[in-house]
C-alpha cells in the first residue's frame, strides 16, 4: 500500500479531516490555479486540471471555489503567482521524505520546511538525495462497498493496463503508469466506480519500519506539521506505517 494513501485513510478514520477542510480547499485552489496557468482552463485538454477538479469534488469543495481558482489561473481575476518547489530530506532513522510545495514566497517556505525537519529529528537534504527511491505512478483508490465485486474490479483494472491491484480491509488501490493513468481512471469512472482518491503520486520502491516510539512520534509530528503548512501540497515518504498508528 502506498504510504501516502495509507496515511490519508488513517486520518480519515480518525475523523480529523473536518478541522482541516479549509486548509485542504486552499491547497487544492492553488493546484487548480497553477494547472490552468500551465495548461489552460479546459479540463478536457488539461489532464492536470481535470485531476485537480476531481480531487476538489472528492473533498466536497464548493463549485464557486473551483471556478474562482480557475479564473485566477486564467487571469480573469487577480491572484498570487505560485511556483512549484520540491524539497527532499530524511526523517527520523533515515526515512526518505519528499515535500511538494506551491508557494508565492520561496524563502518563507524553505524556512518552514527546514524547521519541521530539524525539530523532529530529520534533516533537509540536497535535490536528488531521496527522489531516486520513489517512482511516479497513478493511484486510484475506491472504497470497499457491498455492491463492488473485488474480482470483477481487479480483472477490469488489469485488462485496462493497471500495474498493480491492492486489496485492503476497507478499500482497493489500483496502481497505474503515469501515461495510462488518465485513460484507466476515465474508463473505471464510465463503469460506475467512484473514487475516494485519484491522482499521480510518488510511491516508494521500498519501505522502512521505525522501531522506537520516539521515532514514530517524531515522524508523525513531522508529517502533520508539514501538511498543516498552506504552502505544502503533498508529503511522500517510505515509512512502513503501522496499521494501529494512533494520530
Task: Sum up the structure in keywords.
247 residues, alpha+beta, four-stranded antiparallel β-sheet, 8 helices, 45% helix, globular
Describe it:
The chain is α+β, with helices and mostly antiparallel strands and 247 residues long. It has helices at 3-13, 17-39, 47-58, 63-74, 106-119, 150-160, 178-190, 213-227; strands spanning 83-90, 96-103, 123-124, 134-143, 164-167, 171-176, 197-204, 232-237.
Please summarize the sheet with the most strands: 4 strands, antiparallel
Q: What is the 3D shape? A: globular
Q: How far apart are the termini?
A: 19 Å
The SSE string, one letter per element, is: HHHHEEHEEHEEHEHE
Q: Let me know the average pLDDT.
A: 90
Give me the secondary-structure category.
alpha+beta
Number of helices: 8
Helix content: 40-55%
What is the topology?
Elements: H1 3-13, H2 17-39, H3 47-58, H4 63-74, E1 83-90, E2 96-103, H5 106-119, E3 123-124, E4 134-143, H6 150-160, E5 164-167, E6 171-176, H7 178-190, E7 197-204, H8 213-227, E8 232-237
Antiparallel strand pairs: 1-2, 1-3, 2-8, 4-6, 4-7, 5-6
The gist of it:
With 247 residues, this protein is of the alpha+beta class. 45% of the residues lie in helices and 21% in strands.
Amino acid at each position: 500500500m502506498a504510504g501516502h494513501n495509507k496515511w490519508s485513510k488513517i486520518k480519515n478514520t480518525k475523523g480529523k479531516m473536518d478541522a482541516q477542510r479549509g486548509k485542504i480547499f486552499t491547497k487544492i485552489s492553488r493546484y487548480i490555479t497553477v494547472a490552468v496557468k500551465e495548461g489552460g482552463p479546459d479540463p478536457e485538454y488539461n489532464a492536470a486540471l481535470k485531476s485537480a477538479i476531481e480531487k476538489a469534488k472528492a473533498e466536497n469543495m464548493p463549485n464557486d471555489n473551483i471556478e474562482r481558482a480557475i479564473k485566477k489561473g486564467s487571469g480573469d481575476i487577480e491572484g498570487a503567482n505560485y511556483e512549484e518547489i520540491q524539497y527532499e530530506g530524511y526523517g527520523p532513522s533515515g526515512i526518505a521524505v519528499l515535500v511538494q510545495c506551491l508557494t508565492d514566497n520561496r524563502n518563507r517556505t524553505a524556512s518552514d520546511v527546514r524547521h519541521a525537519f530539524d525539530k523532529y529529528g530529520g534533516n533537509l537534504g540536497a535535490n536528488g538525495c531521496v527522489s531516486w527511491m520513489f517512482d511516479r505512478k497513478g493511484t486510484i483508490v475506491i472504497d470497499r462497498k457491498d455492491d463492488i465485486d473485488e474480482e470483477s474490479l481487479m480483472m477490469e483494472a488489469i485488462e485496462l493496463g493497471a500495474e498493480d491491484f491492492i486489496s485492503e480491509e476497507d478499500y482497493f488501490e489500483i496502481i497505474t503508469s503515469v501515461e495510462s493513468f488518465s485513460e484507466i481512471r476515465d474508463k473505471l469512472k464510465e463503469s460506475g466506480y467512484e473514487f475516494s482518491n485519484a491522482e499521480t503520486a510518488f510511491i516508494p520502491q521500498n519501505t522502512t519500519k521505525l522501531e522506537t516510539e520516539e521515532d514514530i512520534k517524531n515522524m508523525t509530528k513531522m508529517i502533520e506539521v508539514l501538511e498543516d503548512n498552506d504552502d505544502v501540497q503533498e508529503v511522500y515518504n517510505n515509512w512502513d506505517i503501522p496499521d494501529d498508528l494512533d494520530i
